[in-house]
């Protein structure tokens, strides 16, 4: 028997979090000049920051602090209209305070702000579909945020390009450019940019001007802004266009009044920093993110900041509800190598092992997870996820409670179907065949190879039965844990393994335009020897009843590309 997942090995999928800060001014003078001349005032200022009576920044809006248990409920009910929006002056004061009395440096803020932009992008736009990113950077701190974001996007698996036409001759900015050049990230001049940005890029990061900008954009930024605006022109409607991500405020917008005449950039994503600016109220795109969980309570109190609570340990949070999704429009255009008959193993067990090893090597979470489908004597199918625990020439093995619904259905109808799905590889495998219990010796050996906690859990978890509450499970678990604390052997309950002997395999590989590869193995005998026949399945023929009033005797060809073609044979 081959154990597929070594004990003690865990594969953990890391979740991406956003880390956000804001800044746009390089001045370090304090907004509270009297503090510099008065030690008592300075002490009182910092005491206000540290005083326990100040309510937490992440708070509910009925007056009390937000607990971790209730934060998700608050997020569900939190509306964009409830958020505090800052004036240009308030945003500048907060930045000056951060870089003055609170001790942040410009490069710290720039690093964290750029990371927040890159992380927010990765939350929505995956590099497999939106890999080519052009970051357009202005001469100020907003442009610095863009340079940092480009570096992080490179490490996140994107292919960034940078347009930085007006470089700032300061060591901070020169260092950021050097870092990008060391990663071989291309810098493009305005002249080198294509006239139609939609052909060469999937994401356009607008990092030209932040909330401190005044007046009208000068060349070449006026032209660059118009290129972004033109992507929404009517003549572009039938073309796939890149998405636009604006940093803190869309370039060219009035910081407080927004897109005044309606002719400005219309970003798909806005990453507000610290708190959204008043102009962000006019943002109508689908994705508005907020970063700035670092804000001290004193600042939150002073400016009466009302912001959505951050979930868990995340440093970014969506403002408003996610856009409504048309489920029928959800579609993945798979890109995979061809799966050809001449390349596959003659024995489907060997082919399965080959694909399973690929899933392990790709670091997919629980590649041995499979959907087990059974049907009882009432003819009603049921499915659930279980873990494959062994594979040999005789078939696939898993373990479960022998009093569960699946066990009952297998006793009534000892046939089942298994389905493995490996999303990261665009692959699935379906296996069908008869099922029987493994030997008691095999079940006993595996049961006692499990961690002792799992052995106790198997006794406590009487599958498919009604439990008054989770506390009952905990109580019984604790009692059994104490009972066997001396290390004595834990008896196996009515629990054991099943083995499915395969009679059909189907290997599926996703391809472009729904032209998927689907190879099916079925057994047949030649000269008394059991061999496997390999067939490519691309479509199914389905008969429809006659309708003499319309189409007559009609057959429908339902192809794997989800296209239904009707043919009239009359």
UniProtKB/TrEMBL annotation:
Entry's cofactor comment: Binds 1 potassium ion per subunit.
Oligomer status and interactors: Homodimer.
EC number: 5.1.99.6
PROSITE patterns: PYRIDOX_OXIDASE (PS01064), YJEF_N (PS51385)
First-tier enzyme category under EC: isomerase
Residues that coordinate or bind K(+): 142, 206, 251
Similarity section: Belongs to the NnrE/AIBP family.
Role played: Catalyzes the epimerization of the S- and R-forms of NAD(P)HX, a damaged form of NAD(P)H that is a result of enzymatic or heat-dependent hydration. This is a prerequisite for the S-specific NAD(P)H-hydrate dehydratase to allow the repair of both epimers of NAD(P)HX.
Alphabetic keyword roster: Flavoprotein, FMN, Isomerase, Metal-binding, NAD, Nucleotide-binding, Oxidoreductase, Potassium, Pyridoxine biosynthesis
Record protein name field: NAD(P)H-hydrate epimerase
Pfam families reported for this sequence: PNP_phzG_C, PNPOx_N, YjeF_N
Molecular function via GO: FMN binding; metal ion binding; NAD(P)HX epimerase activity; pyridoxamine phosphate oxidase activity
Cofactor requirements of the protein: FMN; K(+)
Residues engaged in binding (6S)-NADPHX: 141-145, 210-216, 248
Gene giving rise to this polypeptide: Vigan.02G112500
Pathway(s) annotated for this protein in UniProt: Cofactor metabolism; pyridoxal 5'-phosphate salvage; pyridoxal 5'-phosphate from pyridoxamine 5'-phosphate: step 1/1; Cofactor metabolism; pyridoxal 5'-phosphate salvage; pyridoxal 5'-phosphate from pyridoxine 5'-phosphate: step 1/1
Domain YjeF N-terminal: 91-307
Catalysis performed (reactions): (6R)-NADHX = (6S)-NADHX; (6R)-NADPHX = (6S)-NADPHX
Gene Ontology terms: biological process: pyridoxine biosynthetic process
